[in-house]
UniProtKB/TrEMBL annotation:
Organism: Parabacteroides goldsteinii dnLKV18
Pfam families reported for this sequence: RhaA (PF06134)
Enzyme class, broadest EC rank: isomerase
Gene Ontology MF, one: manganese ion binding
InterPro entries for this protein: L-rhamnose_isomerase, Rhamnose_isomerase, Xyl_isomerase-like_sf
Subcellular location: Cytoplasm
Biological role: Catalyzes the interconversion of L-rhamnose and L-rhamnulose.
GO terms (BP aspect): L-lyxose metabolic process; rhamnose catabolic process
Co-factor: note: Binds 1 Mn(2+) ion per subunit.
UniProt name for this protein: L-rhamnose isomerase
GO cellular component, one term: cytoplasm
Length: 419
């Protein structure tokens, strides 16, 4: 029996099992089809970019590993992303950092960057049916130091204000070009190794910088602000903490980015969704996997990810939550890293979409708490994998582990030849 026939048979049986608990698998698949992940371009080349490929990564983040085959230029980054995308079911977006501009080999400083430096990306995105998202880049630059937008030195702070304003203009141009808002993320590493004499001084400066940056209103881009617990070498204090950005976002109607690696390890990110949806316009996610710290391990299908996806579905908030990924692993095949993380994220959302939430809520409102727990437990062993296989089949991407051999082939033919 061929794979297609087996997948269809298993799917039909699964559809019956889910129907028995009032879940329509086809409706779940239709909703999954509309979920676009935003693939982070920086997994392809260990956050190097094209501004200064020989420079080192700064800003309290670190990539570990030296697996061969890292993309070395814009063509290789594009080819690797398209290859990864071809193994991920659905239609997805690409999240670019400013240092990935098409600078044509010229030195373009961060306060000089323009939409023209991203024209070829916009065209590439359209050709390949990948809409673009964007990030300002405040790390890996001689003026990065420990403080950028919160720097008391006006010449440094103004440099980064100018950079960030330009990045908003680039995002707007992308949004216009693709006729769909470009999500622009702002993350800065500003902080200090020891507790500063005044915490409020730097937060006041960051607030003032943001007010100036956001003074221009745009219609085709959306601002997202990303908090962090700490950076390497900046362990005691982060200017842009969660409280800071949540307060700023709630007051100024800005989107707060939740990077799942940026919190205390026992903190539930899933639990934040329902509160944030009541006070901020939308949510941007950076799905990551912290191991002991913000280690940016490849995303896998963990309980934390499942909880997060279920919360978003239970809040009926797919139209208000943007799902970006953010990790960088240089110890394994980088294309494989993309595919594992993206497929894991989609699997989590599929499982969430297959939850009979009306029945569970009904049990709860009738105080049938044994029944609620029993159904939640039984759901864990319902055949969602057969629905996933059907999703892959329908989207013409490898079913199950078949992508491993395909990635091995790309490695043998392409990435292993990069020296
Ligand atoms: C490279 C990204 O901007 C970065 O990962 C940021 O989003 C972050 O999460 C920093 O820890
Ligand atoms: Mn992030």
């Amino acid at each position: 029996m061929n794979t297609e026939k087996k997948v269809k048979e298993a799917f039909d049986l699964a559809a019956e099992r889910f129907a028995a608990v009032n879940v329509d698998v086809n409706s779940a698949l239709e909703k999954l089809q509309k979920i676009s992940l935003s693939l982070h371009c920086w997994q392809a080349d260990d956050v190097t970019g094209f501004e200064n490929p020989d420079g080192s990564l700064s800003g309290g983040i670190q990539v570990t590993g030296n697996y061969p085959g890292k993309a070395r230029n814009i063509d290789e980054v594009r080819a690797d992303i398209l290859t990864a995308n071809s193994f991920i079911p659905g239609t997805h977006r690409l999240n670019l950092h400013e240092i990935y501009g098409d600078f044509g080999g010229k030195k373009v400083d961060r306060d000089e960057v323009e939409p023209a430096h991203f024209q070829s990306w916009m065209e590439w995105g359209k050709e390949n049916n990948m809409k673009l998202d964007f990030n300002s880049t405040s790390f890996s630059h001689p003026k990065s130091g420990n403080l950028t937008l919160a720097n008391p030195d006006d010449s440094i702070r103004n440099f980064w204000i100018e950079h960030t304003k330009r990045c908003r203009a680039i995002s707007e141009a992308m949004g216009v070009y693709q006729n769909d808002p470009c999500m622009m993320n702002l993350w800065i590493h500003d902080g200090s190794k020891e507790v500063p004499a005044s915490r409020i001084k730097y937060r006041q400066l960051l607030k003032d910088s943001l007010d100036e940056i956001f003074a221009t209103e745009y219609k085709n881009m959306k601002d997202c602000i990303e908090a962090k617990l700490f950076g390497i070498g900046l362990e005691s204090y982060t200017v842009g903490s969660y409280d800071f950005y949540l307060g700023y976002g709630a007051k100024n109607n800005k989107i707060v980015t939740l990077d799942t690696g940026h919190f205390h390890l026992t903190e539930s990110i899933a639990d934040k969704i329902s509160s944030m949806l009541l006070f901020t316009p939308e949510i941007m996610l950076h799905v990551s996997r912290p191991i002991r710290w913000d280690s940016d391990h490849v995303v896998v299908l963990s309980d934390d990810l499942l909880d997060l996806s279920r919360e978003i579905i239970r809040c009926n908030a797919l139209d208000r939550v943007h799902i970006g990924l953010d990790y960088f692993d240089a110890t394994i095949n980088r294309i494989g890293a993309y595919v594992i993380g993206c497929r894991a994220t989609l699997k989590a959302f599929l499982q969430a979409l297959l939850e009979p939430s009306a029945t569970l809520q009904q049990y709860e409102s009738e105080d049938k708490l044994f029944q609620r727990l029993a159904l939640q437990e039984e759901l864990k062993s319902l055949p969602w994998t057969a629905v996933w296989d059907m999703y892959c089949l329908k989207n013409n991407v490898p079913v199950g582990e078949d992508y491993i051999a395909e990635i091995e082939k790309y490695e043998a033919e392409v990435t292993s030849k990069r020296r």
